[in-house]
Design a protein that fits this description.
The complex is a heterodimer of chains A (about 260) and B (about 400). Chain A has about 260 residues and is α/β, with parallel strands linked by helices. Chain A has two domains: about 100 residues, ATPase, nucleotide binding domain (Nucleotidyltransferase, domain 5), CATH 3.30.420.40; about 140 residues, Nucleotidyltransferase, domain 5. Chain A has eight helices and ten strands. In chain A, the strands form two sheets. In chain A, strands 3-2-1-4-5 form a five-stranded mixed β-sheet. Chain B is an alpha/beta fold and about 400 residues long. Chain B has a domain of about 170 residues: Rossmann fold (3-Layer(aba) Sandwich), CATH 3.40.50. Chain B is about 55% helix and about 10% strand. Chain B contains 17 helices and eight strands. A four-stranded parallel β-sheet of chain B has the order 2-1-3-4. In chain B, helix 11 links the parallel strand 5 and strand 6. Chain B is globular, with a radius of gyration of 21 Å. The model of chain B has no long low-confidence stretch (mean pLDDT about 95). The chains are: A alpha/beta (about 260), B alpha/beta (about 400). The interface between A and B is medium-sized, with 22 and 22 residues.
Chain lengths: ~260, ~400
């Protein structure tokens, strides 16, 4: 019998991620392109995963899109919100998780799920970019540090600097003045991570924290933010190296459900 | 073969329908204002929750800057007006209704919704304290008298006798001030008549709005946002009472016949908290409708339904408007509405204009969600400044709420 394939694509503000499942719901492929909605990124990520799996679009039984670009992606059979998809993806990997903290490029969300992985409630950041991946991008640029190296710097900090969590623009000028006054870069990076964590931790407290807790989304890759978040919440965090793919995984699982439930 | 072009028949509104009558009251409200101004009558600008019984009894002609600002914002000129006020030094953190109104007082023309310039001002702060500074500034800028009734925010569950007494004395003083300003005379007989009509209008309004408890609801909840203008500006007029009674009759008939003004299948029922996001009304309403979500619950229905037996009761009603009551009272009222209407989720408009309303909203919505066991989501927006809203963020939150509601019903 011909194998069935299910594809999830998470089109965010800064990246496009795909996950491919087989009929046993096993992950058999993934792709990530550092370009999000409104760019060629989604199409590239889609073509990339098909090419790597040696498949064509016609081989895919069902595709679900999620993320801010979900509506515009015409290859998908259906679309779901990233809230539902992150919950689905995380529950699949960590069945004991009840609170998901997802920080993406332009938003942060905290999702409360029950034992069955069903979303009970959620809370998202307001319009401001503070507490999101975009905030870290801006800060890394000012500090002339590769975004992937923020973790190394944060972990070498002696005394994290105090950085405002109110506004990205204010925080940017604060970082510049900290640099001007000779503050150690590691301390500034740790302060930036604490700023993001503090803002999102207050969102998490608003929706109510029930352990276990997991971080997903691109920012979860940053160990500095994970450490600061764990400290802010006074709890350990679950983390998967595939954290950035949780939305795409959830979308792929929904795609599977569409034809199998 | 030539293709026959089938033209859709043009929609003609039934002039005897409640909607038509209510729309006429609103349009007459503005045309009567201009006629009064032309005849040399004095015009008042009035806060929406100022006791309208006073000027109805005195026979004064007033209009409402809040209604005007909402209309201007809904018709796309909110940002233009806000920028004028901001150019004059008003912070963009100030209420956008105030910014629109202060701009209008300056430029005196807004094709989206014009109204005559005022000769006096009637302010009441039971809706918010920004109102006082807004009206004080109008008074100074336009050099016209201001009548203020101070109804402070009530930290207790219900107004005390002392508060009622405090407000009643101001109510009586306001009558004297207005007699002096306008030369009109107070009549106790007329006051009784106005109170009766106002109660009748309020009862009919509350009866009509209560039909959203039916499943499916005979009305699209967004209809109430339009009809509310009449509840604000014509509560003391017999035509308003009759139109709302007719509206209630129509809804009753619709329930029996299984029809609705909600032009989609009602799959989900939602409580909407906060004022409408007027600059993006179509987007916010369409996103809900496209997902089969009907807004069946809103505190607005109660906000302009004043039921009382006598003067003390009237004063107490004005002390008990939604924006003047404490968190516990505000929560209980909303929980009752959500349960009565079987709302399945709560969508909160965090109105950047309104610190008072949005201030305790996080905690209140959390408590409502817990009490009703419904999911809650909030979105940033504004009652008149379009810059505080993001369509994509709104859509994501609404979609996530929809998916939770579907999941709660056993869907995928």
């Amino acid at each position: 019998m011909k194998e069935s394939y299910f594809l999830g694509i998470d089109i965010g503000s800064t990246t496009s991620k795909c996950i491919l499942l087989n009929s046993q719901r096993e992950i058999i492929g993934s792709s990530l392109v550092s370009a999000g909605t409104g760019t060629t990124g989604p199409q590239k990520a889609y073509e990339d995963i098909l090419e790597k799996a040696n498949l064509t679009a016609g081989d895919i039984s069902f595709t679900v899109a999620t993320g801010y670009g979900r509506i515009m992606f015409t290859e998908a059979n259906d679309e779901m919100s990233e809230l539902s998809c992150h919950a689905k993806g995380v529950h699949h990997i960590f069945p004991d998780v009840h609170t998901i903290i997802d920080i993406g490029g332009q938003d942060a969300k905290v999702i409360s799920i029950n034992d069955a992985g069903k979303v009970i409630n959620f809370v998202m950041n307001d319009k401001c970019a503070a507490g999101t991946g975009r905030f870290l991008d801006v800060m890394a640029t000012i500090l002339q540090i590769n975004i992937n190296d923020l973790e190394i710097h944060a972990r070498e900090a002696v005394r994290p600097a105090k950085i405002s969590s109110t506004c990205t623009v204010f925080a940017e000028s604060e970082v510049i003045s900290q640099l001007s006054s000779g503050e150690n870069v590691n301390n500034i990076v740790a302060g930036i991570c604490e700023s993001v964590a503090g803002r999102v931790a207050s969102l998490a407290k608003r929706v109510g924290i029930k352990e276990e807790i997991c971080m997903s989304g691109g920012v979860a890759k940053n160990g500095g933010v994970r450490d600061a978040m764990s400290k802010s919440l006074g709890a350990k965090l679950q983390y998967s190296p595939k954290a950035q793919y949780m939305g795409a995984l959830g979308a792929a699982l929904f795609a599977y459900d569409k034809l199998n439930i | 073969m030539s293709e026959e072009v089938i033209k859709k028949p043009k929609y003609v509104e039934d002039p005897n329908s409640a909607k038509s009558k209510l729309n006429k009251i609103t349009s007459d409200h503005y045309s009567n204002l201009w006629m009064a101004k032309e005849k040399g009558e004095m015009i008042g600008w009035c806060a929406s929750n100022f006791p309208q019984e006073i000027f109805e009894t005195l026979g004064l002609t007033v209009c409402y800057p809040e209604n005007q600002a909402a209309a201007i914002a809904a018709r796309g000129a909110g940002e233009k007006m806000c920028l004028i006020s901001e150019g004059d030094g008003y912070s963009n953190d100030i209420c956008a209704y105030a910014r629109v109104s202060l701009a209008y007082a300056k430029i005196k023309d807004a094709p989206e919704q014009n109204m005559p310039q005022p000769d006096y001002l009637l302010c009441c702060n039971n809706i918010c304290n920004t109102m006082i500074k807004w009206y004080e500034n109008l008074s100074v800028e336009l050099n016209i008298p201001l009548v203020l009734i101070d109804i402070p925010f009530n930290p207790d569950y219900n107004p005390s006798k002392a508060e009622v007494e405090y407000v009643k004395n101001q109510f009586l003083e306001a009558i004297k001030q207005l007699e002096k300003i306008t030369g009109k005379t107070w009549s106790d007989e007329k006051f009784k008549e106005v109170m009766e009509i106002s109660n009748r209008t309020s009862r009919a309004w509350l009866k009509a709005t209560n039909f959203t408890k039916n499943t499916p609801s005979p009305l699209n909840g967004f209809d109430l946002l339009n009809h509310m203008a009449v509840a604000v500006c014509a509560r003391g007029k017999i035509e308003a009472a009759e139109a709302f009674e007719l509206l209630a009759e129509e809804y009753e008939k619709a329930v029996q016949e299984g029809t609705s003004t909600f032009r989609a299948e009602e799959k989900h029922r939602l409580m909407f908290e906060g004022i409408a996001c007027w600059p993006h009304l179509r987007v916010t309403a369409t996103e809900l409708k496209s997902r089969g979500i009907n807004m069946v619950a809103t505190i607005y229905a109660d906000a302009f339904g004043f039921i009382y037996d006598d003067l003390d009761g009237l004063i107490e009603a004005y002390c008990n408007v939604p924006n003047a009551m404490n968190l516990e009272h505000a929560r209980d009222k909303r929980v009752a509405i959500a349960k009565n209407t079987k709302a399945e989720a709560l969508l909160v408009h965090t109105n950047r204009s309104c610190k008072l309303w949005s201030g305790f909203m996080y905690e209140m919505s959390r408590q409502i969600g817990e009490a009703c066991e419904i999911p809650v989501a909030s979105f940033d927006g504004d009652q008149a400044d379009p810059r505080n809203f993001s369509e994509a963020q709104y859509a994501t939150r609404v979609q996530a709420l929809t998916e939770i509601m579907e999941s709660n019903k056993g869907g995928k």
